[in-house]
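Hi everyone, sorry if this is the wrong subforum. Our group has a chain we'd like a structural model of before ordering constructs, and none of us has done structure prediction before. Sequence below.
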Amino acid sequence: MKNFFKLLGIIALVAVIGFSMAACKNDDEGGGTDPALNGTWVQTITSGSYTYTTEIKLNNGNIEESRGQNGMSLSPIYKGTYTTSGNSISVQMTHYYHRANWLTKDQLKSAQGTGMSDTDIDLIFKSVTAIWSVSGNTLTLAGLTYTRKS
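Answer:
Right subforum, don't worry. Here is the predicted structure as tokens:
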């Protein structure tokens, strides 16, 4: 069940980021990272009797996401790299957390008991581009709002 919620969350995140992809060209050269993104960002959503917490750590081109539910400890979900160009961020997942191990795309496809098809795994590792902005302690990423963790 825990893996199902991880997969559901990742698919939702990829879908949101995918739908908010920027189609315009940016005049910036890009390829770098904006230091305004550095930090740990948290989002909490309540739906019915469930509370979901997402924590994203951004650090000079590295990204790691963890999630928790109903006050349980956060569990790692994925990690990867990102670059920015203006207000556009491109994220490439490099590892998915499964059974206390960080797995690459190929390792995840050959792992037993994931409950994921190769198509699901390809979706997780698909490079995505989205719009972002930071205002004070608030990050808006692909239309979702996160607060900087102290």
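For your construct planning: Strands lie at 39-47, 50-59, 62-69, 75-85, 88-98, 101-103, 128-135, 138-141, 144-148. Residues 105 and 122 are 8 Å apart (CA to CA).
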